[in-house]
Structure formats: C-alpha cells, structure tokens
Amino acid sequence: VQLQASGGGLVQPGGSLRLSCAASGRSFSMYSMGWFRQDPGKGHEFVSAISWGGSTTHYADSVKGRFTISRDNVKNKVYLQMNSLKPEDTSVYYCAASPLTGWSIRAIDYDYWGQGTQVTVSS
User: Fold this and answer.
1) Residue 38 and which of 10, 55, 63, 96 are 20 to 30 A apart at CA?
2) HSE toward the beta carbon, residue 90, CA cutoff 13 A
3) CA distances, 66 to each of 24, 75, 80, 83, 102 (Å)
4) CA gap 91, 82 in Å, rounded
5) Are 79 and 19 within 8 A, CB to CB?
6) Would you give the distance in Å from CA 116 to the centre of its chain?
7) From the centroid of its chain, how far is CA 62?
8) At residue 61, what are phi and psi to the nearest 5 degrees?
9) β-strands 32-38, 2-6: how paired?
C-alpha cells in the first residue's frame, strides 16, 4: 500500500483544515487506518484511527470533539477533519495503514506510512 497525505497548511487558531490520504496498491478496505503526528526529535503521537470498514473510530483525548476521521473505501481515501485548531496541534501529520481489522493507537501496528503533511496553527 502506498499512501499520499495532503491538505496541510497554515491556519489561525480556531480554524479548520481537512487532511486527506490517498491509498494505492493492495486493497485499501483490508486495512484499518490511522493518523499520527510527529514533532522534531519525538516519536509518532497517535491522533485518530478508523477500522477497516469504518464502523469504529478512536481519538486521542487531546483531539476528541475537535477532529473527525472518516474513510471512503470506494475512493481509497481516509480523511481527518480538524476543527477548532490550537497552536499545540502544530505538527507533521502522517497517515498510516494497519492490517488489523480494528484500530490501534500503537505506531508499531502500522505497516505502511505516508510522507507527512505539515500543519501549522499560528496567528
């Protein structure tokens, strides 16, 4: 599975962004998907995940109620709608694919990673 993340950018606090991740290669619907973020010198921080069928989702406490993950298994895409953005959301965001049918918060469970897209929240 090859993953390509996009949609990052500069936004003011309180603003919104929608990240997209396009998948190609093996059957996208066979993978659960996750979004992580990473700051310089740190490991991947879990943000959100969605099961392979889209029926279950999970969020980090820091983004719960502000971010929404979704997927379209026809278009082979996963999305992260980010609302009410805060400066502490500034990071490089990565999409990742896991062979697990459920979801996982552990980066080690994800076999495939996109290239990352920068999100900067600043006035």
Assistant:
1) 55
2) 11
3) 28, 24, 10, 5, 22
4) 13
5) yes
6) 10
7) 14
8) -55, -35
9) unpaired
Rounded to whole angstroms, how far apart are CA atoms 70 and 33? 9
Task: Tell me the C-alpha distance between 65 and 83, whole Å.
Answer: 9
CA distance 16 to 86: 10
pLDDT at 76: 94
Per-residue pLDDT of the chain (123 residues; tens, 9 = 90+): 899 999 999 999 999 999 999 999 778 888 999 999 999 999 999 999 999 988 999 999 999 999 999 999 999 999 999 999 999 999 999 999 999 878 899 999 999 999 999 999 999
Amino acid at 41: G
